[in-house]
Amino acid sequence: MPAIQSPEESIQPDNSQPVEIHPDVALVARAKEGDSSAFEQLVRQYDRQIFRVAQHITQNREDAEDITQDVFFKAYQKLEQFQGNSKFSTWLVRIAVNESLMRLRKRKTSKTVSMDEDVHTEEGSIPRDFAEWRPNPEQLYGQGELADILRKTIQGLPPGFRTVFTLRDVENLSTEETAEALGLSVPAVKSRLLRARLQLRERLSRYFKQSNPLQALEGKSR
Amino acid sequence: MTCTDFLAKLTDFFDGNVPPALMAEVEQHISECKHCEVVLDSTTKTINIYRDSEIYDFPPELQQRLESAIMTRCCGPRDTTK
User: Cβ separation of A169 and B50 shorter than 8 Å?
Assistant: First the structure.
């Protein structure tokens, strides 16, 4: 799999332009030399993202807290192995995904949880609900209520689909970065992403579509 | 273009990876097929809602506690007497 290079790290074709290095590269270099404040800065930059990824995959807050600690501890121990061929954040996310899936496996001791477990799930591959959505569906609900709906809905996705959707659409990784972080091919990511998006769309449709007259009225009154 | 062809191109469409010639076909299909127009609109909204919503809160106290625990695990307890 080709290494992912961030735009900031790429060599400019025009030699008169200075080559921009991603700020993380310098922080990682300092951390490798034992500068704990540099590592602390990396922790501050990415702990929220790692926590969010872990919570999305495990759906458990305590697990997400433990995983966040474990991810940075492992990263610190393996810092020498980070060669800078990918973004530091993608490297961290990859560790977080592995730790989260391992945590799910431990929870379901009799059942294997892997990125391949739900590949054959056909549900959601074909759209069934064709009702139009409200123009601004998020405005139909209060912030807390909306968050509940979104949590409940994503919780129902198989872990493999949830993970792909989280990295690509919540964390905004590119399709290639998502593939790299999950150790999957780009076509496999695209296929799972399509199913994940369509399944979520189908499940959210019951809350956001226009055909519910009660919701339509409530929406108009806000 | 059929609805199945459209669905097969949906991920590339969101990635902006549809070649111009094929893009014209996609747009033509959407303009003629209400179902696919709805699927595109609601899938776009699905992505945007999740992208824009912080569904798991990460309060400053938790962040501070985690950072402190991580730094202690990695670098040992700090000397707070300085």
Answer: yes
CB contact under 8 A, A151 and B42: no
Name the helix (H) or strand (E) containing B44: helix B34-52
pLDDT in tens, A39-80: 999 999 999 999 999 999 999 999 999 999 999 999 999 999
B49 touches A: beta carbon within 8 Å:
yes
Taking the C-alpha atoms of residue B36 and residue A173, their distance in angstroms, rounded to an integer, is: 26
- Phi, psi (rounded to 5 degrees) for A179: -60, -45
d(CA A52, CA A69): 13
Residue A67, C-beta contacts closer than 8 angstroms, at least 6 positions apart: A50, A54, A58, A96, A99, A100, A103
* Phi and psi angles of residue A209, each rounded to the nearest 5 degrees, phi first: -80, 160
**CB-based contact, A130 to chain B, within 8 Å:** yes
Token pair in block for residue B37: 């127009």
User: Which ipTM did the prediction report?
Assistant: 0.90
How many whole angstroms from its chain centre is CA A55?
10
* Domain layout of chain B by residue ranges: 3-75
Minimum CA–CA partner of A130 in chain B: B35
- Segments of A89-217 assigned E as strands: none
Q: Under DSSP, is residue A97 helix (H, G, I), strand (E, B) or coil?
A: helix
> Residue A199 class from Cβ within 10 Å (0-12 exposed, 13-18 middle, 19+ buried)?
buried
Distances (CA, A) of B68 to A50, B61, B74: 16, 11, 10
* pLDDT digits 0-9 by tens, B38-78: 999 999 999 999 999 989 999 999 999 999 999 999 988 76
| Min Cα–Cα distance to chain A from B18, Å | 14
